Amino acid sequence: MMSKKLIWIFAVTAIMLFAVLNVFRKGEAETPPQPVHKSVAVDSSKCIAPASFMRANHMQVLYEWRNSSVRTGNRVYIAQNGSKYEKSLNTCIGCHSNNRMFCFNCHSYANVKPKCWNCHLSPMETP
Amino acid sequence: MKKVLMPLVMVALLALIPFVGVQYAGLSYLFGVIIPYTAMVVLLAGFLMRLADWFRRPVPFRIPTTCGQEKSLDWIKYDRLESPAHFWEAAARVLSEVLFFRSLFRNTKAELHKDANLAYGSHKWLWLGGLAFHWSLLVIVLRHSRFFFVMVPGFTDFLDHADGFLDITLPTFYITDAVVLAAISFLVFRRLKDAKMRLISLQTDYFPLFLIAAIVVVGVLMRYVVRLDIMPVKDQMLRLVNFSVDAPGEIGTLFYVHLFLVSVLAIYFPFSKLMHAGAIFLSPTRNLTNNSRQKRHINPWNAEIKFRTYSEYEDDYREKMKKAKLPIEKQ
Q1: Are the beta carbons of B2 and B201 closer than 8 angstroms?
Q2: Dihedral in degrees, nearest 10, Cα atoms B96, B101, B102, B103
Q3: Mind listing the pLDDT tens digit for each residue in A26-44?
Q4: Which residues constitute the domain of residue B296?
Q5: Is B327 contained in some domain?
Q6: Closest alpha carbon within chain B to A37
Q7: Which of A64-68, A120-124, B154-158 has the lowest average pLDDT?
Q8: What chain A residue is nearest to B249 in terms of C-alpha separation?
């Protein structure tokens, strides 16, 4: 009697497991994840920092830029190599607007929704 | 305090293994692909085996807990939650336990006062700390679904927003990150503070707390302090969800520490006290309807009792009974 119960339990869990895994596969196996962060062809030597640093820390840079430029009025950013930049999203978009999806590609992939575009024009909206 | 230090050292060592392995030995494939899959297999198989083992244990009798009126006559009001008579009432009792730790809410504390009076009082701190801990963990796990799905389900997206509701710091500070760390600290210090608690606490009580604390701390570090490029992390998690065995891309070492500690937790899970996650559903005092008055429960392994009915008795002694002029039912 007990073993029958056991078979039932195993059968039900196996079916449920199979169903769950199938849901996962159906949604995603047919569209394998495409790393989308390689597409931007920009002269990265002009950027304020190396691409690897920017990928991980751009939000921090923008955060500092916003606070220092708005609160203390300091609008000049001095990069590691000594060159100066205006602390503005336009500095970024000046180069990166060649790709309208520049921000959105990665941000939608990682499901990160910053509040930049509540006020600013995004690369998608700039002419 | 060997009981406390040993688990602490163990967790530190465990965190060091993937750090050294990936940073210096380049074993990112081992820690990014092989170990996570192994851990998931062990977790699933172990969990099912433990549950199957417990399912097989017979529970022949109902265990009425004494805090509610049992259902008997129609005009006597019975306590639906404390003494459930139907399946759904018992299910509600189990769920109230799972979701709100109802039994723990009744926790009391005995204190011996100076005038030698023993006093009992309500003591809800463990309930509150445990609730904060478990709910935070649940929210954190659900929040991680943004790494597992290409399109994040709306529900967890909402959780993500609600959790970052304070909208301070960058990246947005999650409330549960702070709550879970505070709760873990409380749960550890609760065991350390009281001499009686220290005595009954074992290494296996401290180890999961420290392990989860380490996972949280590494996760918090990755988010707020040592930033990682998150794109290859999502690539890798999507590959794992899709059962792909491709090698992971360039990911910061801390990610492997996080993933390895989670794998350790997953492997440790089925063999430890953490199995209470599945076992709580099988608690006989919670999940059995208290219907002993409506239904007779018979112990399945009772020995077969040979009954001797009166007619059999009469068959045996009919002649003698007739001679003794005793009344007989069948001539």
Answers
A1: no
A2: 130
A3: 544 444 445 444 444 556 5
A4: 2-306
A5: no
A6: B231
A7: A120-124
A8: A35
